[in-house]
C-alpha cells in the first residue's frame, strides 16, 4: 500500500495534465500530419504562403527585439534594485510586481490610450508644436514592441533581482580594490555571474512574446499580424482548423526547442557550476 | 558596506519605474474623467463610468462568469495540486523524474495552443460543455503555480513531525489537517491568490472557449474595446487594479512579496 502512496496522491493532477493537456495538444499536432496530400502537406502549404512566412518572420523579429530591449532594461534596473537598501528594495519590487499581476488586457489598453491617434503622446507633441498632424503610432510594429517591452520588463527585473542578489558585495569590492574600474567590474564580474539568470529571463520573454495574443491584437491589429493573432484568425474567423493546427504545431515546436536548447546553454555557461 | 552605484544607473532606474507605473496611473486618470471619450489628464471628476460597468449587462454577466471560473479552477487546482506537491516532496524516490517535468508542461505549451486544442479536441469532439472546458483549461494553467508555491513551503517542512503523529496513533487524514496543513498555510494562501489572479486575467485560453452567451471579463473587455472607445474599459481596469492591490496586500502579509522574486 505504502509503495503506491506517492502515485495515488499525484494521480489526479497527473491524469488532468495527461487528459486535458497532453492528449488534446498531441491530437492537434497529430492531425496536421494526417491530411490527404501527404504527411507534410500542411507545412508545405504554410511555408509556401509568403503571407505566412512574413507573419512568422515578423513574429520572430518582434520577439527578438522585445527580448533584447527587455534584457538591457531589466538587467540594469535589477542590478540597481539588488544593490538598493532594504526598504527601498521592497518598494521597488512591489512597483515591479504590481504591473505583473495586472492583466495583459489592462496593460495593453494603457498603451492604446497613450499611442492612439488622439492619444496622450500625439496631443502632447501637437501642443508642443513638434508635429502638425497626429502620427500613426498604433498598428505599427513599434507600438507592439513598446507594449510588449512594457509587459515583460517586470518579469525580467524579478527574474534577475534574485540572481543578482546572490552575488556577494565582497566580490564586487574585491574586484574594485584589485584595481578594476566600475565598468570592468560590471562586465567581468557581475555580467558573467548573471548569465544563467539572463538566459532564463530571455527564454521567458521570447516565448511569451512569440505566443502572445492580446497585445498584438490590440496594438497591431490586421496590419501587424503575429503568429498568435494569425492562429486565432484562422481558427475562429475563417474556421480553417487545419491551418490553425499547423500554426499551433509550429509554435509548440519552436517554444519547446528554445526552452530545451537554452536550458542546456545556461547549464554550460553557469560559472558557479564549475 | 553596500556597493556604490553610478548616478547614471540610478537615473536610468528611476525612468524605468516611471515607465512601469505611469501607464497605470494614466488608466486611473482616464477612468475618473467626466468625458465620453478617453482622455488624460481627466477633464472633471466623475464616477459615472464605474456605474456604467454595472449598467451594461454584458459586463455584469462576464464579471460573474470570471469569478465562477476562477473560484472553481483555483479550488480544483488546490485540491489536486496539494496532494501532488506532497507526493513530489515526500515520495521523491518512488516517483519517476519525468513527473515533475509533466507538471511544468502547462508553462511550456503556449496557452493559445492549449485553448485551441481544448476547443477542437475536447469541447467540439466530445460535445463537452464549453464552461467545463473553460474550467479545465484554467485549472491546467494554474496548476504549475500551485505546485511550485506549495512545494516551496513543503521544502521547509520536517516530515518526521508527521511520522511522529502517525506513530502515536493519529489517523492519516487527521494528521493532514492538524499537522501538515497548518504548517503550509501561508503557501496555500499564496497559491490560492496567485492562481485566482492568473485565472481572472487569462486571455489566451479563454479566447477560444468563449462565445455568444458565455464570456469572461478580459474577453468582454477586448470585444468592448473594438467597438467603443469610452472610459468604461478604463474603469473596469481600475476595478481589476484594486483587486490586484488587495491580492498583493494579502501575499505581503502571508509570505512577503520578495517571495515572488525568486
- Write out the CATH superfamily name of chain A: MetI-like
The level 1 CATH classification of chain B is Mainly Alpha
Q: End-to-end distance of chain B, in Å?
A: 24 Å
State the CATH architecture of chain B.
Orthogonal Bundle
Q: What form of chain A results from the Cα inertia axes?
A: globular
Q: Averaging pLDDT over every residue of chain A, what do you get? A: 91
**DSSP strand (E) fraction of chain A?**
under 5%
Largest sheet of chain B: none
Question: How many alpha or pi helices of chain A?
Answer: 12
Strand residue percentage of chain B: under 5%
- Rg over C-alpha atoms of chain A, rounded to the nearest angstrom: 23 Å
CATH topology of chain B: MetI-like fold
Quaternary structure type = heterodimer
Describe the protein's architecture and organization.
Chain A: One of its GO terms (cellular component) is plasma membrane. Chain A: Keywords: Cell membrane, Membrane, Transmembrane, Transmembrane helix, Transport. Chain A: This is ABC transporter permease. The complex is a heterodimer of chains A (274) and B (262). By secondary structure, chain A is mainly alpha-helical. Chain A is built from twelve helices and no strands. Chain A has a single domain (45-165, 194-273), classed as MetI-like fold. In chain A, helix 7 packs across helix 9 (182-210). The longest helix of chain A has 33 residues, at 50-82. Chain A is globular and about 70 Å long. Chain B has a single domain, classed as Orthogonal Bundle (MetI-like fold). Chain B contains eleven helices and no strands. The model of chain B has no long low-confidence stretch (mean pLDDT 87). Chains A and B meet through helix 1, helix 3, helix 4, helix 5 and helix 7 of A and helix 1, helix 3, helix 4, helix 5 and helix 6 of B.
Amino acid at each position: 500500500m505504502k509503495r503506491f502512496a506517492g502515485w495515488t496522491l499525484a494521480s489526479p493532477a497527473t491524469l488532468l495534465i495527461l487528459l486535458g493537456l497532453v492528449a488534446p495538444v498531441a491530437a492537434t499536432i497529430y492531425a496536421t500530419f494526417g491530411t490527404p496530400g501527404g504527411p507534410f502537406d500542411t507545412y508545405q502549404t504554410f511555408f509556401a504562403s509568403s503571407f505566412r512566412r512574413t507573419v512568422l518572420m515578423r513574429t520572430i523579429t518582434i520577439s527578438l527585439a522585445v527580448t533584447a530591449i527587455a534584457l538591457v532594461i531589466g538587467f540594469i534596473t535589477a542590478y540597481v534594485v539588488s544593490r538598493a537598501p532594504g526598504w527601498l528594495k521592497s518598494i521597488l519590487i512591489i512597483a515591479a510586481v504590481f504591473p505583473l499581476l495586472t492583466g495583459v488586457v489592462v496593460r495593453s489598453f494603457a498603451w492604446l490610450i497613450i499611442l492612439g491617434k488622439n492619444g496622450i503622446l500625439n496631443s502632447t507633441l501637437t501642443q508642443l508644436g513638434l508635429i502638425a498632424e497626429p502620427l500613426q503610432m498604433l498598428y505599427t510594429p513599434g507600438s507592439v514592441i513598446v507594449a510588449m517591452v512594457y509587459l515583460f520588463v517586470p518579469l525580467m527585473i524579478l527574474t534577475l533581482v534574485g540572481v543578482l542578489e546572490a552575488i556577494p558585495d565582497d566580490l564586487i569590492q574585491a574586484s574594485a580594490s584589485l584595481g578594476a574600474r566600475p565598468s570592468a567590474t560590471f562586465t567581468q564580474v557581475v555580467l558573467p555571474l548573471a548569465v544563467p539568470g539572463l538566459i532564463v529571463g530571455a527564454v521567458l520573454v521570447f516565448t511569451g512574446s512569440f505566443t502572445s495574443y492580446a497585445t498584438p491584437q490590440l496594438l497591431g491589429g490586421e496590419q501587424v499580424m503575429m503568429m498568435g493573432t494569425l492562429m486565432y484568425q484562422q481558427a475562429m474567423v475563417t474556421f480553417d482548423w487545419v491551418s490553425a493546427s499547423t500554426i499551433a504545431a509550429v509554435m509548440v515546436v519552436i517554444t519547446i526547442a528554445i526552452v530545451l536548447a537554452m536550458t542546456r546553454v545556461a547549464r554550460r555557461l553557469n560559472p558557479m557550476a564549475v | 558596506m553596500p556597493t556604490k552605484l553610478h548616478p547614471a544607473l540610478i537615473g536610468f532606474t528611476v525612468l524605468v519605474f516611471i515607465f512601469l507605473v505611469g501607464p497605470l496611473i494614466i488608466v486611473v486618470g482616464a477612468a475618473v474623467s467626466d468625458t465620453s471619450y478617453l482622455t488624460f489628464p481627466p477633464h472633471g471628476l466623475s464616477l459615472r463610468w464605474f456605474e456604467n460597468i454595472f449598467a451594461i449587462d454584458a459586463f455584469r454577466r462576464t464579471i460573474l462568469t470570471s469569478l465562477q471560473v476562477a473560484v472553481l479552477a483555483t479550488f480544483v487546482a488546490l485540491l489536486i495540486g496539494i496532494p501532488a506537491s506532497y507526493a513530489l516532496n515526500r515520495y521523491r524516490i518512488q516517483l519517476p523524474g519525468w513527473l515533475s517535468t509533466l507538471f511544468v508542461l502547462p508553462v511550456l505549451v503556449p496557452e493559445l495552443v492549449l485553448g485551441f486544442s481544448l476547443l477542437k479536441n475536447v469541447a467540439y469532439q466530445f460535445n463537452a460543455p464549453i464552461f467545463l472546458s473553460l474550467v479545465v483549461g484554467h485549472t491546467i494553467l494554474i496548476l504549475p503555480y500551485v505546485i511550485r508555491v506549495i512545494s516551496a513551503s513543503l521544502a521547509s517542512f520536517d516530515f518526521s513531525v508527521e511520522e511522529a503523529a502517525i506513530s502515536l496513533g493519529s489517523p492519516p487524514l487527521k494528521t493532514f489537517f492538524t499537522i501538515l496543513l497548518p504548517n503550509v498555510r501561508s503557501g496555500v494562501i499564496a497559491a490560492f491568490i496567485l492562481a485566482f489572479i492568473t485565472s481572472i486575467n487569462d486571455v489566451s485560453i479563454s479566447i477560444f472557449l468563449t462565445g455568444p452567451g458565455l464570456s469572461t471579463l478580459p474577453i468582454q473587455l477586448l470585444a468592448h474595446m473594438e467597438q467603443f472607445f469610452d472610459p468604461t474599459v478604463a474603469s473596469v481596469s481600475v476595478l481589476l487594479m484594486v483587486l490586484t492591490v488587495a491580492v498583493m496586500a494579502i501575499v505581503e502579509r502571508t509570505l512577503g512579496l520578495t517571495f515572488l522574486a525568486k
